[in-house]
Write a structure and sequence with these properties.
- The protein has 141 residues and is mainly α.
- Helices cover 83% and strands 0% of the residues.
- It is flat, with a radius of gyration of 36 Å.
- It starts with a helix and ends with a helix.
Length: 141
């Protein structure tokens, strides 16, 4: 028996490894690959989460600045009307217009919410009931 034959694993033929060892090695490599991919996905999602957080903060800042801009526009409208009217009358007119706008928006929003209730997919439920009835009918035939 030569020295290379003595080092060969039992059951190995022509220098190849036994199937059990190959399966075990493939399983370990697959496990390592999956773990590596999971670590990569975790790092990628962490980075994306940071970007979403920054983006959300910037959108919030833009909303705040936009709101301040609208307040300045209201003051500008009052000042413009105050040229022809007393300041209190100009402020009252702008307040009334903003109140009317808020009321229209609230009523329109309420109408949309009422149209959306109940929050169930009614058409889909009816379709499923019809499908079940059709299946029962064809099963009885």
């Amino acid at each position: 028996m030569s020295s290379t034959e003595a080092h060969r694993a039992p059951g190995a033929q022509n220098g190849s490894e036994p199937v059990g060892e190959l399966v075990q090695r493939a399983s370990q490599q697959l496990t390592e690959l999956v773990r590596g991919e999971l670590r990569l996905a975790q790092a990628e999602m962490k980075e994306k989460g940071k970007r979403y957080g920054k983006g959300g903060g910037l959108f919030g800042g833009a909303g705040l600045v936009g709101f301040l801009m609208l307040e300045a526009l209201v003051v500008t409208a009052i000042a413009g009307l105050a040229v022809a009217l007393p300041v209190w009358a100009a402020a009252l007119i702008v307040t009334a217009v903003l109140g009317a706008l808020a009321a229209v928006l609230a009523l329109t929003g309420r109408k949309e919410v009422v149209a959306a209730t109940p929050p169930t997919p009614e058409q889909t439920i009816e379709n499923v009931k019809a499908d079940v009835a059709e299946i029962k009918e064809s099963a009885h035939r």
